[in-house]
Amino acid sequence: MIDKKHEKKFFSLGTETEQVEFKKSTGELKEAVISIAAILNKHGSGELYFGVKNNGDVIGQDISDSTMRDISQAIGHHLRPVIYPTITTEKYEDKAIILVKFSGTQQPYIAYNIPRIRVADEDLIMEQSVYETMMRNRNNITYSWENQRSKYKISDINQKIFDSYLKKAKKIGRISFEKDNPEDVIAKLELSDGEWLLNAGAALFVDCGINELQMAKFASDERLTFTDIRRFTGSILDLADKAVKYVVDAMDWRVEFDGSLERIEIPEIPVKALREAVINAFAHRLIESGQSVEVAIFRSFIEIYSPGKFPEGIAPEMFIKKSLKPIRRNPLITRTLYYSKDMESFATGLKRIQKACDKIGCKVEYFGDEYGFTVRFYRHCGDFWAKEMSARNGTLGTQNGTQEAISYKAQIIAMVQHDNKISRKKMAEKLSVSLRTIQRIINSIDGLNYIGSGRGGYWEYRK
C-alpha cells in the first residue's frame, strides 16, 4: 500500500516530439548536441531541456556557475555550422531545469562530425544522398556558409597575414587597389558586411577556430605509433605555411654538386606540389563539417587530407588529363587566394601537382571516401633516391657497425648541410636508428664538428 503522504510527485512537461527533447542531466551533454543537430536538420528549430526524464517528469538539474558555460561550449565546439542558442533556467516548484532554444537555416548540421536527422524522438544517422542534397541546396543559395556574417570584425584581422597577402597580390598585378587599409580592401574583396567579416573573410585572415590543422609523424606506414603530433587553429594562410614547413622539415633532402660553388639541395617530394596540395586542402574543404585538415607523415609516404567529398561523378584523374571547369565549394575563398596566386581558379591544381611530381619521378595518388579527399606522396622515388635508400637499408645488422656507419655518413652530411642546427634526435628519427648509433657515425665522419653548445651551437662540415 502506497503512503500517500510520502509519495514522490513530479511535474510533467508532456512527451518528447520531433522538436522537443528531454535529458535527465548535463551528463548527457554529447547526446544533447546530437539531438540539436538532428532536430535542426528536420525542422530548423526546437527546444531541449536538462533536468527532465524521457517521459516528461521534471526531476531537476544541479546548476553551478559553469553549467551554462559547459552547455554553450559543447554546442559551439561540436556542432557545425555554428549556431547561437538561447540558454535559460526555469523552475517548477523547487526543481530547477535548463531550457535550450535553438534555430538555424544552414542545413545540414553535423554533431561530432556526423550528420543526423530527427525521426519521431530518435536521432538517426543521415543517409549520404540526403546529406549531399542538403549541401547542394545550401551552396546554391545566397546565404551559403561563406556569405554568412561571422562573429568577427575587420578589426580582428591578423595585420601581418593581411599585409603579406596584399603585398603578394599587388606584386603579381592581380590587385591594384589604391588604399591598403583592411576596411577598404576587405570591402572590395566582398568579404565583409559593414564592420563585420563574412565567414570567408574570417577564415582567410583571422586567427580563430574556423580553421584547424592536425599534423603527426608515425613510426611506420600505419597509424599505430606516432613520434610527434601537433594541432593548430588560425587563418588559412598561416596554417598553410605551418603545414608546408612541417613536411619540409620532416622530408629527406639530398645534395648534388654541378661544379659550381653552390650545392643543389633536392627534396624527395617537390615543395611546390606539397604547397599546392595543402592550400587546396584548406580552400576546397567542407568547412562546416568542423573537421581538420590533416598532414600525416609515414615512413614510406606523406598524406594531405581535406574534409569534404570529391565532386560526385568526377575522378581526380579527369582534372589531370582533361580541361574541366572548376568546381568550387568555397568560391569566395578560392577567388581571394587566386588574387595572391596562392592558387589558380582554373581547376589546374591537381595537374600542377602531377606535373611537378612526374618531373622528379615522385609517385603521387589521389583517393577519397564519403567524407574526405587525400593526396598521397610516396617518399624516396626515382633512381637517384633508390641508390641512397639501398645504401641505407642494405647495411643494417652488420657485425661491428662499421659498414653501417659508412652507409649513413652521406645521409648525415646532407642533413647538416641542409640544416646546420639539426639535432641528433632528429637525425635518429629520419634514419630510424638509435641516438647511440647516430653518435657513433658522427664520430667517424672526418671534418664534421659541432661548434658551440646547446641551442646556440651549429654543425660545421669541412672536407
Based on helices, strands and strand pairing, what is the structural class? Answer: alpha+beta
What is the overall pLDDT average? 84
Q: Return the CATH topology of the largest domain.
A: Heat Shock Protein 90
Largest sheet: 6 strands, mixed
CA-atom Rg in angstroms: 28 Å
CATH class of the largest domain, anyone? Alpha Beta
Shape descriptor: globular
Ordered list of secondary-structure elements with their pairings:
Elements: E1 20-23, H1 29-43, E2 45-50, H2 67-78, E3 79-80, E4 86-92, E5 95-103, E6 110-111, E7 114-119, E8 122-125, H3 128-139, E9 149-153, H4 159-171, H5 182-188, E10 192-193, E11 196-198, H6 199-205, E12 212-218, E13 226-233, H7 236-250, E14 253-257, E15 263-267, H8 271-283, E16 293-297, E17 301-307, H9 316-321, H10 331-339, H11 349-360, E18 364-368, E19 372-378, H12 383-393, H13 402-418, H14 424-431, H15 435-444, E20 448-451, E21 458-461
Parallel strand pairs: 1-2, 12-16
Antiparallel strand pairs: 2-5, 3-6, 4-5, 6-7, 7-8, 9-11, 10-11, 12-13, 14-15, 16-17, 17-19, 18-19, 20-21
Helix pairs in contact: 7-8, 8-11, 13-15, 14-15
Task: Explain what you see.
- By secondary structure, the chain is α+β, with helices and mostly antiparallel strands.
- The protein folds into three domains: 8-141, Schlafen, AAA domain (Methyltransferase, Cobalt-precorrin-4 Transmethylase, Domain 2), CATH 3.30.950; 142-387, Heat Shock Protein 90, CATH 3.30.565.60; 394-461, Arc Repressor Mutant, subunit A (Orthogonal Bundle), CATH 1.10.10.
- It is built from 15 helices and 21 strands.
- The chain has a six-stranded mixed sheet, covered by helices on one side.
- Strand 18 (364-368) and strand 19 (372-378) form a beta hairpin.
- Helix 7 runs antiparallel to helix 8 (271-283), helix 8 runs antiparallel to helix 11 (349-360) and helix 14 crosses helix 15.
- The longest helix is centred in the last third of the chain and has 17 residues, at 402-418.
- Mean pLDDT is 84; it is low at 1-7 and 391-406.
